[in-house]
Each structure stands twice: as structure tokens, then as C-alpha cells.
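Researcher: Structure prediction, please.
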Amino acid sequence: MNKIIIIADSTCDLEPEYVEKNDIVLTPLHVSFAGDDHDYLDGVDIDSETVYKKVVESGNTPKTGAKNIGEMIELFKKYVDQGCDIIFTGIGSGLSSTYNNAMIAKQEFDDDRIEVVDSQNLSTGIGLLVSKMVKYRDEGLNIHEIATKVRELVPLVSAKFCIDRLDYLYKGGRCSGMTKIFAHALKIHPVAKVIDGKLTVYKKPRGLYRKAVDEQIEEFLKDYNDNNIDLDNVFVTDSGHMDGEDNYIIKRLGEIIDPKIIRHTRAGCVVSSHCGPKTIGILYILKRKN
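Model: Predicted structure follows.
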């Protein structure tokens, strides 16, 4: 069997040491700012802190861009020419054109050499699937067997995020000015969840930010008590500037599950660009659909 190369785009938000240890190839998405001619690459020449600094300086949030078809062809060709088989996943088709571009690029090669999986997710919702790919690869499965098993898990990924303020969503055109004003006045810290491949606000707790954080923890506890969590990996992923809320979540989850399986990661430029600082999520795979 040919060597298997697992490729994910930079939105998977996996720990750099895990990526290196498990021979995962990351391909960065594009980040651009109005009035700045530079095409930044997520995690290569720009990070979340730089994004926040530029937003303060310019008053505008950046745009994030997919890998184009030519870039995907070049990426796949590099490893196919080395005699490798490829399995790729990245930000979901409902959130970016990366998946569709990868599917078009795949047609340039022998169909047996490349599998493309639509994560229908973002951030470590993708990272959970990549971690399963690593596990199945190491068990000796081929790319087609891996893709089949991972596609079965896609609808079982639970990805939620607390968002502190709606400034970034407003600047990016994802909520109205009136919604932003009311949210701030009423101290609403929305909880967004990936539903049917799109990030959707599904709870709007009022009061302290901690209340929105506790909403996530309570949902996790319910799934745990229902024996409905795959405990291979549980991610706590944040966009920085957490004021201790990350440590609070990790401590609370560590009272429920083995702390060793909790993976704390930092979100890259995609989540940071669209949701802003002090965004945090608990992400895991369900055993069965709720």
C-alpha cells in the first residue's frame, strides 16, 4: 500500500506539535485586509494577535479566502508524484469553497489516489476528524476505508462556541447594527453552533459571559451522562484574551472526564477573523445523533 498523506487546511486549529508528530500536512488559507496589498497566509505570516492589532488600526475585519483550484492541484501533485495516496479535509462546504475547489482539483488525478472529505465544520470540529484519520491510518486502513469511516462521523461532530461581543460579526456583515446594539445593551453573549454545515447562533444567554460558558458545559455534561461522547478526544479551543475562562472550562471538564484527553488549542485566523477575541468552544464527537 502506498504511503498515506493526510492533508488539512489551516482552519483545523490542531496543536503544532501534534501536526508534526503525526506527519499531517497543513495548507494555509488566505487572509486579506482592505487597503493592504499583502496576501497573508493563515499561520504562516499572520496569526490571531496580528489580526486583532490590524482590526484596531484599520477599524475593519479581514476577509478569509479559500485555497484556489490551482493551489489545490499543485498541492496534490506534489504528493502524488512522490507515490503517496492522499486524504484531504478542510473547512466545510457550507462555509468556504475550499472543499469544492479540492473536488475539482482531484479530477486531475487518478481517482484511486485522492479522497476528499467534506468536514461540514470549522476549527477543531475539523481537527476531530483529522485525529480520527490519523488513528485509522495508523491502524492500516487505506484512504478509501478511512474516508468511509470519517464521513460517518461528520454529522456526529458537536461544535459550539461562546462569542463575547458581536463587533467582529457586525464588521464582517454577519449581524445588523441594531442586533449588535441590543446584544451589548442586554449583555447577550451568544452561543453559536455548527448546524447543517453552517455556524448558527442557537442560544442567547443574558448576563455574565460565564453564563454562556456554563451553557456549553451543561450540554457537554448532558451528553456525557447519556453515554453519548466519544472520549478519544475532547477539544477546548479559544481565540485568545480569555481572562481565565479557558482554565475554568478545562477545570470543570476535568472533573467530569479524564483531564488527559482534553486538548486545549488556539484558534487560527479564520475563527478569530469572524468571531473576534474571547471566543471559546467545547468540541467533541457524539456516539449517536441527538
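Model: Confidence is low (pLDDT under 50) at residues 170-183.
Researcher: Thanks, that helps.
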